[in-house]
Design goal:
Shape: globular
Strand order of the largest sheet: 1-2-3-4
Low-confidence stretches: 4-24
Number of strands: 4
Mean pLDDT: 80
Structural class: alpha+beta
Helix content: 40-55%
CATH topology of one domain: Nuclear Transport Factor 2, Chain: A
Strand content: 25-35%
Order of helices and strands: HHEEEEH
Number of helices: 3
């Protein structure tokens, strides 16, 4: 009888654990938090900021004016990791704006 009770308890705990892990939602960081992360990487002046999906990932994208040009800094909207930090040429910036108008 004690063995049956122990098995029932273990079984019910296993179900509870599997249900709680399957319903766990990933929480997005805020735009303000992402802005702070981006400025920590490139401490300039933010020219534009947006939340968008890029390559299947939800990101915050910032164009930051630095002395050597505009840096595009992309921050993962869930984990807060910097996914990209690159200098954007004027041609690339124009192409990106043209693409946004199409979408």
């Amino acid at each position: 009888m004690a063995d049956t009770l122990a098995l029932c308890i273990l079984f019910s705990q296993g179900i509870a654990l599997s249900q709680s892990s399957s319903t766990t939602k990933r929480h997005k960081i805020t735009m303000a938090a992402a802005r702070k992360i981006a400025l920590g990487s490139e401490p300039g002046i933010i020219k534009s900021a947006e939340r968008e999906k890029e390559k299947g990932k939800l990101i915050y994208s910032f164009d930051i004016q630095m002395p050597n040009g505009i840096h595009e800094v992309n921050v993962d909207a869930y984990g807060g990791q910097i996914l990209e930090d690159s200098i954007e040429t004027p041609a690339e910036e124009a192409q990106e704006k043209a693409q946004e108008k199409k979408n």
